[in-house]
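tmp note - Aspartyl/glutamyl-tRNA(Asn/Gln) amidotransferase subunit C
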Amino acid sequence: MSINQETIKHIAKLSRLSLTDHEIVLFSKQLTDVFTYIDTLNEVNTDGVEETSQVTGLINITGEDVVQTIDAQTREKLLQQFPSRDNDVLRVQKVLGDQ
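out:
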């Protein structure tokens, strides 16, 4: 499957991406390579092969949230050390951009 430059421009427009001419040529080739590889994989006989989502055997391990109480004096010391706060609300810097 070949992904032409017009398709890349269309995808970029839908995604609101600004691409240079070099990027358009590069992504056209890269996506063509990806879809060619997928076509190759589609030719593999997978009859009798069980579907898997991961093969490492790892699982998510989570612990229970535990609330630890502290005395009022320690709590106030901690709050006073925080650089930006509004009463008991601690303000932190923005993690995600404005995009």
